[in-house]
Design goal:
The complex is a heterodimer of chains A (374) and B (377). Chain A is α+β, with helices and mostly antiparallel strands and 374 residues long. Chain A has 14 helices and 12 strands. Chain A is globular, with a radius of gyration of 24 Å. Chain B folds into 3 domains: 2-116, DNA Polymerase III, Chain A, domain 2, CATH 3.10.150; 127-249, DNA Polymerase III, Chain A, domain 2, CATH 3.10.150.10; 252-370, DNA Polymerase III, Chain A, domain 2 (Roll). The chains are: A alpha+beta (374), B alpha+beta (377).
């Protein structure tokens, strides 16, 4: 993405992410990945591995419009598109005209690749497969700019030599547990007894068994799964003791979480505070509210109260990380009341109207175009 | 005290007054019912000692007058189960034990000193108005349910009585809906504006079911109490102090669309939609489309339960003005449709999201306003 804006970055090892001493890599170019850099790695570690890398800050405001165009092109290909991120999606091609012809899917995939390259200047990798798991693993394998076609029924054979960590369901902990059992490839996992896997890992064991055998009945869900929670957190460059700084940070988080909620037409029943002391002890506290909220002010108020409660019970110490989250999300529906009889709700509604206005100003003129006074 | 009375009379009286008794109380005697035998009748009384007191009179054959209190729950459950025969009741004054016998069943129930029973203050008859029982009952049933259930604003837990000349205007609002019924009084009354607890009026509505003629309503001079006198039964309530909001201002003036439908069909479709709405936020969506080219207009009533299913019903409608899309809490719709007794009803709306003004056709005495839900269409 960043290369679109700065062609000089092409073919260079590039790290996108926070530059500060506690920054984290959001994404790394394929050139940088060769040095062992990957996303979610501390920036300092990535720079040790690849000192010549060019570090570019994340500029999410640039990615949004491109992501929207990308998804629009997918939507024009098939009615069943499940978005799983700004740059990733599952597309159900079974309903396409002439789908009895296996070449039809391939033509559609080629069409998407050509359009995205021509119109957005971005390379996409696609895997055509009979299941979501294979499509996901295959599209990762096809990167940086490829098209893979795994015929239906060939899933298990295709997956067998791949590292078991590439299966979406195997995270770092599950991967480590499997590695401890000398299970490194999907094929090795497939060879394990299903009952034994269940005994050892519970439901995850059964699912692993199925996936390793190429069995994945999960359908493509149009529109994508609605987010279960929305949160923002920040690791301070220097541990913070001033309460004002913490309050200010919470409000900035609330501003962003609120904007995400409003954009997604959702409201939060629960507000969560995450805090890490300088000694890395991490605490979370949450509060479920009477009425689902969306306003920046309501999120800020809940966050401040949770922080005060936490300080009361735990004492105040230097803070390394502070986060604010919205969970228990519900659709944005509100019972309107008579303003004359429900003045407090009229106030909430005015605040929400104000938030929407700020959102639209920021959308037009950028994130920093307008700020709240102290 | 020694007397005999009919099981069904005592049963009816006890059930009527028991409604005044609070579910929990610090005062044990408020769980009791007071029986007073005098002349040829027994007066039964119960109160929560705070907002409501009910007395009910039944005929009896009294050999010796007197009074006693007895635990209401025990006594009414016992009497309710007895056969429809004569009950003999005798009080042993000193031990306060009451012996009751009916057919071949005998009971002994311990009472308490009637002098400890919370006094039911008499309501002076400074301003008494007369109102026809059946019409009053109908008016109450159309208004009382709209009062607030939570007491964050106490005045909204009551029904506003505004009396002026021969007009009695009853209004209730809980912040999301408003119900107003205007009754014509047979005689002119002096101007009066009070708030009566909705809970007391719900009990009154039940008592009114067996009242036939006019009843008298008396507000005391101090403006603290009201008494409803049904002849055989009386209900006294403490008035709610405060100023009721100006409800007239809450009724939107004019409309841009008007949808007229049959109450029965609308109620049925809302009932169905509500089954689907209950797992969401209770949202029932209405879309009223005017008829085109001679075709009748229609109203669709729909609801969806996230991840469970959707429902859409359609009924004929006469739609004047623009197409309307409005969402309401299904319960609010149902509760008003349930109390309408006309065949047809009109829903008036303005710009969206707009309050819905519900007017039974051919009955100007009633108007109901429901605030909409803000939803993504």
């Amino acid at each position: 993405m960043e290369r679109l804006h700065d062609p000089s970055l092409i073919d260079q090892p590039v790290l996108v992410g926070g530059h500060g001493r506690r920054g984290v890599v959001a994404t790394a170019s394929y050139e940088a990945r060769r040095f062992g850099c990957h996303s979610a790695q501390p920036m300092s570690q990535a720079l040790r591995l690849c000192p010549q890398a060019i570090v570019v800050p994340s500029r999410f405001d640039r990615y949004g419009p491109v992501s929207r165009d990308f998804h629009r092109m997918l939507d024009e290909t098939s009615p069943a598109v499940e978005s799983v991120g700004i740059d990733e999606a599952y597309v159900d091609l079974t309903g396409l005209e002439g789908s009895a012809d296996p070449a039809a899917a391939r033509r559609a995939a080629e069409g998407i690749r050509t359009r995205v390259r021509d119109e957005l200047g971005i390379a996409v990798s696609i895997c055509i497969a009979g299941s979501r798991t294979t499509a996901k693993v295959g599209s990762d394998a096809a990167k940086p700019d490829g098209l893979l076609d795994v015929p239906p029924g060939d899933d298990a054979r295709f997956l067998a030599p791949r590292p078991v960590r590439e299966l979406p369901l195997v995270g770092p902990n599950f991967g480590a547990a499997l590695a401890a059992l000398s299970v490194h490839t999907v094929g090795q996992a497939a060879a394990l007894d299903r009952d034994w896997l269940e005994q050892r890992f519970g439901r995850a064991g059964i699912v692993l068994h199925d996936r390793a055998h190429g069995v994945d009945p999960t359908a493509v869900r149009p529109g994508g799964r609605p987010a279960r929670s929305i949160s923002r957190e920040v690791t301070f460059s220097n541990d913070v003791t001033e309460i004002d700084t913490l309050h200010h940070t919470l409000r900035r988080h609330a501003e962003r979480v609120g904007a995400d909620l409003r954009r997604a037409n959702r409201r939060a029943r629960t507000v969560t505070l995450k805090l890490r002391w300088s000694d890395f002890t991490t605490l979370t506290r949450s509060r479920t509210l009477d009425r689902p909220v969306q306003a920046t002010s309501a999120l800020t108020a809940a966050g401040n109260e949770l922080l005060a409660e936490l300080f009361r019970s735990q004492g105040q110490r230097p803070v390394r990380l502070l986060g604010l989250g919205a969970a228990n999300l519900v659709d944005d529906v509100t019972q309107l009341g008579f303003d004359e009889l429900r003045p407090e709700e009229a106030t909430t509604r005015r605040q929400e109207d104000l938030d929407r206005t700020l959102d639209s100003i920021r959308k037009r003129f950028g994130d920093r175009s307008v700020n709240r006074g102290p | 005290m020694r007397l005999s009375c009919q099981q069904e009379d005592l049963h009816r009286g006890l059930s009527a007054v028991a409604r005044a008794i609070p579910a929990r109380s610090a005062l044990p005697i408020t769980q009791h019912v007071l029986l007073t035998a005098d002349g040829d009748q027994i007066t039964l009384s119960a109160t929560d000692a705070e907002t409501i007191a009910i007395t009910y009179t039944i005929t009896a054959s009294i050999d010796e007058g007197g009074s006693i209190t007895m635990p209401s729950r025990l006594l009414s459950d016992f009497v309710a189960t007895l056969p429809r025969e004569n009950i003999e009741m005798t009080l042993a004054e000193r031990s306060r034990q009451v012996s009751l016998s009916c057919a071949r069943n005998d009971a002994s129930i311990g009472g308490m000193d009637p002098d400890d029973f919370p006094p039911i203050p008499p309501v002076d008859d400074s301003a008494t108005i007369s109102v026809e029982a059946a019409r009053f009952r109908r008016a109450l049933s159309q208004v009382v349910f709209a009062a607030a259930a939570d007491d964050s604003r106490p005045v909204l837990t009551g029904v506003h009585f505004a009396i002026d000349g021969t007009e009695m205007r009853l209004a209730a609002a809980d912040g999301f809906r408003l119900a107003v019924h205007t009754l014509e009084l047979p005689d002119s009354a002096s101007e009066c504006s009070v708030i009566v607890p909705a809970r007391a009026l719900a009990e009154l509505t039940r008592l009114l079911a067996e009242a036939e003629d006019a009843i008298s309503v008396t507000f005391n001079a101090a403006g603290t109490q009201v008494q409803f006198d049904l002849g055989h039964a009386k209900l006294v309530a403490q008035l709610i102090q405060g100023t009721f909001p100006d409800t007239q201002r809450l009724i939107p003036e004019g409309h841009t669309s008007r949808t007229e439908v049959a109450v029965g069909e609308f109620n049925r479709e809302t009932r169905i939609a509500q089954i689907f709405a209950r797992d969401g936020s209770g949202i029932v969506r209405l879309v009223a489309s005017p008829g085109e080219g001679g075709a009748p207009g229609r109203l669709t009533i729909s609801a969806r339960a996230e991840e469970l299913g959707t429902n859409e019903g359609e009924i004929d409608a006469i739609v004047e003005g623009e197409e309307v899309k409005v969402a309401f809490n299904g319960r609010y719709l149902r509760e008003v449709l349930d109390v309408l007794d006309t065949d047809r009803v009109a829903i008036e709306t303005q710009d969206q999201p707009s309050p819905g003004v519900i007017r039974p056709l051919g009955d100007d005495s009633y108007v109901h306003v429901i605030m909409p839900m803000f939803v993504q269409w």
